[in-house]
Amino acid sequence: MALWGGRFKEKASIQFKKFNDSLPVDYRMAVQDIVGSIAWAQAIHEVGVLNDDELARITTALNELKASVEADPKQILLSDAEDIHSWVEIQLIEKTGDLGKKLHTGRSRNDQVATDLKLWCKESGGDLLFALVNLQQAMMNLAEREKDTVLPGYTHLQRAQPVTFGHWCLAYVEMFNRDIGRLKDALYRLDVSPLGSGALAGTGYPIDRNALAQRLGFRTATMNSLDAVSDRDHVIELLASASISMMHLSRFAEDLIFYNSGEAGFVEMSDLVSSGSSLMPQKKNPDACELIRGKAGRVFGSLTGMLTTMKALALAYNKDMQEDKEGLFDALETWEECMEMAVLVADGLKVNRSRTLAAAQQGYANATELADYLVGKDIPFREAHHIVGEVVLAAIEKGCPLEDLTLTQLQEFSDKIDQDVYQHLSIESTLDKREALGGTSRSQVEKAIATIQAGNGEILNEQVVGAPGKQQIKVALKQVKQRLNAQRAAAMSVRRARMSDVEKIHQQVNIQADKGEILPRTLDNIIHDIQNFVVAELDGEVVGCASLYIYQTGLAEIRSVVIEQSAQGQGQGQALVQYLLEFAHQMELEQIIVLTYIPEYFSKLGFNVIDKNSLAENIIEDSEPSPHKEPADEVAMEYIVGQSS
Prior knowledge:
The protein has helices at residues 14-20, 23-26, 30-46, 52-71, 84-96, 109-145, 165-190, 209-215, 225-230, 233-260, 287-310, 324-347, 353-360, 367-375, 381-398, 407-411, 422-425, 427-432, 442-454, 458-464, 470-491, 502-514, 523-528, 572-586, 599-603, 617-622, and strands at residues 150-155, 158-164, 192-193, 220-221, 267-268, 350-351, 494-496, 533-538, 541-552, 555-563, 591-596, 608-610, 635-640. It is of the alpha+beta class. Helix 3 (30-46) packs across helix 6 and helix 10 (233-260) runs antiparallel to helix 11 (287-310).
């Protein structure tokens, strides 16, 4: 049954129907279409199209249909409906009779499909964020395991300077962090609702589109109906994010394929991610990495296809846009699958440390250190560079590394070279000199990992006192920890609060205040301070909140940390605090304090106990004593925020 047959005298040909129908692809948006339909039913009820009884009957029928689809989504494919919108409407009419025909009042499949797709993208985006954070953590774990392993670094696929395997891992942590940023940006921009835009000119009913948008979980509604129904930027942005991330994954895979080769022999892949040869029994092939590398092209192709489809489309909707979903669905699934496979690869990787060390000692990777040594002897770098080039040429002719040349042989090239040169030519010296921020020194890598993993930076304290330049390293590495924690928070659906959250925040805060756990907040106070609140969501419901109260330049307090009883123990509270710490860093705040009855909780998040009497009087005055607690039980704690380098 088609929903548009009145204008036509003849049925569409079977060939055209097969060519035109999108149900085999868009059936995956069934739940989103039903959710959008429930919200639309409420919207047209508010303007008098449906009465209370009709709304109740339609809503009940749609909820039943939603439960059925969630239990068995493939049932949809047994239908000959044109698309998922037609299928949902047909099912509704079967359940409610002619009443179901009223639901589409004021709505078009153009704004309907745009809304469904954005809802699907929002949901999928959350899964992709989790996958990216998990991938970052897998690389952190590998870096921790191989933080002391020497690895030859390469430029132009020629051995250049030694690095550590941990440093190599952290390079990909940085890449995946940028991927997270791009994905979050794309998800923010797509978080606007097209529903109520009609076919192209807007709906003819006085729908409150912002209320409708918030009911569907969007932050706001679109501003232009022509753009709303013809916009597919969000599809292109997600495909671009996926493509860039797949490029990073492909580089990761290529590195490991090379490291795994018989010529390098630096690593061995786990049997879980390898295959053998049907002919050669000795072979163990890095198929997981090769497939990741290969699938990058598949994702790139989806992006190119979508850009080509959209490049010359006149406003507004055109049937060409039906091609938006198949490539998107496949690309995002491929991206997520490749991230999960990369985690499996990293978890099972075995590094041959003797081979990596031997390789790093070859290829004259310490030549730069010899040049730096000569610079330290007041020889200009360009002259030192030339001298070392001649030394390397002599070493090649003798078939030995630089450090095996005798002092007499080295002094033939410069009389500034002394016995102390040999301490500069060792692998250990080459690595340990790279102490500047972002360098590959083993202590730097170790501290970076320790800071991120330990959560409070205490591991660094004993090692950095009095050491020149290391305080800067400590601060910068703490930023990495804050950033990674903030990414986890975002993946756990922590977001900035909106005005629509005020009532829920007020309710949550004052339930805890009645127990004496935190200070009460008036509704007006929360409204006034809403821009400083963040909330945590589970399944689209706000289950917790926290706020950042700024006292003065550089100083703020975390307040009103609340998680509903039903959501406790799932990490939402920590995610709220971590989100605020990153927010504080972006605000260039320096010191964050809390006044708490549970210091052990905040200690795990990097806070240290301080003397409450050291706080300014206005801070103490703001902290009203709880009638349910002893004043001495309240502990003051601080967190020193990493500053920009």
